[in-house]
Amino acid sequence: MTHASMKALLEEIRQRLRHDVIQDACAELDGASDGGHHARTLPFDVSLSRPGFGDASSNAAFLLAGRLKMSPSDIARAISAKYNERNPLGGLVVRSVPHPSGHVNFEADWAQLSEIILSGAGLDTFGDSEIGGGTPVTVEHTSVNPNKALHIGHVRNIIIGDTVSRILRKSGHAVKVLNYVDDSGLQVADVVVGFRHLGFSMDPPPGKTFAQYCGDEIYVKTTQRYDSDPSLEGLRRDTLREIEDGSTEAAKLAGVITRRVLADQLQTCWRLSVYYDCLNFESHIIRSGMWGAVFDKLKDMNLVDLDRSGGKNDGCWVIRDAHGAGAGRGEDTGISDGSSGSSGSSNARAIRKESPPEENRDKVIVRSNGTATYIAKDIPYAAWKLGLVDDPFGYVRYDVEQPGGTTLWQTALGRSDGAMNFAGERVITVIDSRQSGLQRIVSDLMGRFKSSGSAYVHLAYESVTLSSDTARALGMETDKRQAHMSGRRGLYVDADSVYEELRKKAAAETLKRHPDMGDPDVARISRDISVGTIRYEMIKQDLDKVIAFDMERSLSLEGDTASYIQYAGARASRILEKAGREPPDAVDFGLLGGEDAEVALIRAIGSFEMAVEDAARNLSPKVVARYCHDLAVSFNAFYERSRVLGLDDPGLEDARLYLVRSFRFAVTRALGLVGISAPDVM
User: 438: which of 85, 266, 322, 375 lies 20 to 30 Å off by Cα?
Assistant: First the structure.
């Protein structure tokens, strides 16, 4: 693969050092040493340098110091001398310069490197990497209980999962994206109880979607009735059992409800430019028979034991010492794992409190009465995602066409529109950090099944709160600095409300700046800004940090925001528009090395591929978000210091115009990788 990036420079240096430079330098320093062996086995690094230390740097001298019993400084001088001696004409390195500290630094030929980077930025493949090697990867994200509208806390999961999927595709992986639909869990049972037994109408009030109605009204008020009337708990359990049976009136009603809620949830996701390959229904997993096959495999591999201790788990099948397990995928307190629990498998998405350290860490997967616990749904589903069990499903197309050009499939039993395969060599499951306990168990079991500890990855993240100003603006009453959300108590703000508020603010600001702009353009730009704002706020932080979402701050044209990056792209578009012409295909790239701001911008553009690879290896959307911000900072510095148009030097003007256009290409592709559009006007 030819790298149209700074990686081309690093690869050339790495190959030259490995091929003969280190070997020759070692032989000259110590004639008795095995220079060839050092060159082959030395795990040296070549990376981009900090300003003032050349353009690239290697730590090879430090690693050789112990082997050669010499100072890194002396070795660095020898390596640099040999590199300069062997450096071919036409290479990307002008010269190597040893640093007194022992680093071996390299100065780039910016005329050649600029041409490689800036001409490559206009290609659709710019930033592509092949590190994935076509490996099939299955990513599961969203997986929100279909009893409510998506709230802003769910959106972090959705955007993380979607962005990771995009990054993995860009880095050469074959990615399939799944959305798990818990259509037979306890929270669905709560909504069914509300409609069947508490007199709620199936029609939402004006101005509310069905999903909003179910979450705001039915779910909240039904769970409040449980608190005031404990006798309803039996009705709740009976309803859950009927839903799991699949053939009852309650099950049919649950199917209608979950499909309507799911349709609203998908509309929200599509609005945020999030798309899927397959919807997996929990009811199909329960009825598929997969659990029996996986349970037999667990017993055959001695991964579960039948407890005969005489204690509380006597007669149960358990996973021994399941340290830290305590959570499924939902929000409710659910039904306990003990042998006196409800019949059938209990809520796979129910939150459980983690046991104190001194308590038994064994995890019950089958109760003494023979019924499976909630984890018995997650284990076969995980095995199916890894292709470790025969696929029992048929697949049919979803009944609404998904935007974005990707066909959306859904699981089915007993019918199929075609043979599909959604299994991966590696599985990444995006679930919040509260469920790390359960996910550790599943990950460990899948690692043993697959004989690979990295086959099943739980990508955890922390919660989203609202700033007090944003909470009040969206109708939540709070006297605290941050508002925490709870679906059970109705203390949340749905994602559509946040989007609409952002869209209105963006439209008003756009009209203020462009009073003559037509409504279609205002609508397009305000959508791009509002979606960009939401997506960027969800990925710019480390995953282990709580997000405090603030509407006003996130729309700022200054600082670390999507609007700041989009505005840099719009600035570039304005320059190109004022020029009234395209730069010629062939410009003198050697004219661009005269100012530090020019070199810094070219270097930033050329770092895209490395950002993609870093993000893919670490499953870190923040890496690309940070790249986008740094790219915009570099362009704005160039914009402030370097004139582009009206120069007395036509050659320099063409070269700088080419640079601006290349930046515009790069920022569009980089933002696109995180699902954000780059409008021409802000």
Answer: 266
